[in-house]
Amino acid sequence: MASVRRASVADTVVRLLMVVLLCLCITCDGHYLNVSSRWLVKEADGQRIKLACVNWAGHLETMLPEGLNRQPLNRLAYHVNGMGFNCVRLTFATYMLTNATIYNRTVAQIFMDAKLEHTLRGIVIHNPELINLPIQDAYACVVQQLTHAGLLIILDNHVSKPQWCCANNDGNGFWGDMFFDTNAWVQGLCLVASMFKDNDQVVGISLRNELRGPKQNINDWYKYMALGANAVHKVNPNTLIILSGLHFDTDLRFLASNHLKNLSFQDKLVYEMHWYTSSYGVNFAKGNLNKACAIATSSVMKGGASMVIPTTNRSFTSPIIISEFGIDQRGGNKANNNFITCFFAFMASMDLDWAYWPLQGDYYIRHGNEGDEEYYGILNSRWNEPRNTNLLSRLQAIQQPWKSGNFPF
Ligand SMILES: *[C@@H]1O[C@H](CO)[C@@H](O)[C@H](O)[C@H]1NC(C)=O
Ligand SMILES: *[C@@H]1O[C@H](CO)[C@@H](O)[C@H](O)[C@H]1NC(C)=O
Ligand SMILES: *[C@@H]1O[C@H](CO)[C@@H](O)[C@H](O)[C@H]1NC(C)=O
Ligand SMILES: *[C@@H]1O[C@H](CO)[C@@H](O)[C@H](O)[C@H]1NC(C)=O
């Protein structure tokens, strides 16, 4: 009885927040973005926005964005903003929206089912208003707090079945894989697009993270991306549609000869790519760093980043978001250290939009370990301080756009 009552109070609070938010947005600047050649620009005035995002995982087994057992949600949201990021790429699993045995489970029920009582106690302490909300509503609260903190948000469909990502054979890699049902995928995308369609800080929806695995092929990529993109656009015509490439989002080469056609819209389409130390098969641990960097950079350009450069060989130019990159921040991995130096040089010269992987300092549960530490995380395992201030200041150096106003192309 008591818990039912709490849930309904929390429900009311959420609804009130939504109303406040809607009212605020009547007077606030439109945040929605358009694509203009290789740039993301504000729909309202055509000025460039450079996305400097951090990834925040919400797609693992519990489906609750990580860290809410460590810090209050609003403090985390403002902390992200305070570190200079202007945006969060918030991941989610399709099942959170489409699977009837999951979507009406409360946060408390999910954590109890997963035998994460200790972690749940942390959530009760720091974010008590979340625990009796259905998981979808708790996720919506996170989006709202990010919104309040002035951040832009990209919702990233990371997996279908909530779990750690990504492996070739994890059943979530390509349409038709064990858990990757096409209809549920479209349904989930439309639900999430509809949930946030009045929030103009939800500027992008990434249709699927890191396509991969034995089933991947170009024809299906075109077919299903057009299907998903048109469906999302119909529900939410203002948000950017962000598309990932094959082979763990390293390969968009096929677009050079054949752009994605058959879309009901033009100026909302963006591509994303990922770049980790070994993504493009370059050994950054030994040999000449300049040479390794030149080879890797060239692979990234051929893989798709060259879409930002106009050429007569291609009928279009497009923005590219490097939506995942990251390193072990303990500093002892030479390949990681060399890679990130190369990466920063590349990003400084190319002025691309980006999202660091990831924010989280640890996980509720990953690989079966409760409180598993994330050494790539921007925040430490207590989620109260940056893990590595040196890396953070290097990231801050690529947060500002080089170009704004009148663009050469
Ligand atoms: C829903 O989720 C449950 C629990 O993970 C799973 O056993 C079931 O197969 C899922 N159903 C569908 C239709 O995806
Ligand atoms: C969740 O939904 C299922 C199927 O619609 C229903 O049987 C169940 O009672 C619901 N659970 C709660 C807690 O609302
Ligand atoms: C184009 O998209 C529509 C709607 O998604 C679909 O019905 C149609 O089959 C597609 N045509 C081609 C040639 O892919
Ligand atoms: C354009 O195509 C020509 C001929 O196929 C090729 O030699 C050249 O390298 C291409 N340029 C770019 C920028 O891809």
Automatic annotation (TrEMBL):
Keyword annotations from UniProtKB, A to Z: Glycosidase, Hydrolase, Membrane, Transmembrane, Transmembrane helix
Origin: domain of life: Eukaryota
Gene Ontology terms: biological process: polysaccharide catabolic process
Stretches assigned to the Glycoside hydrolase family domain: 70-359
Transmembrane feature ranges: 12-33
GO molecular function, one term: hydrolase activity, hydrolyzing O-glycosyl compounds
InterPro entries referenced in this protein's UniProt entry, alphabetically: GH, Glyco_hydro_5
Family listed: Belongs to the glycosyl hydrolase 5 (cellulase A) family.
Protein name: Glycoside hydrolase family 5 domain-containing protein
Lineage, highest ranks first: Eukaryota, Viridiplantae, Streptophyta, Embryophyta, Tracheophyta
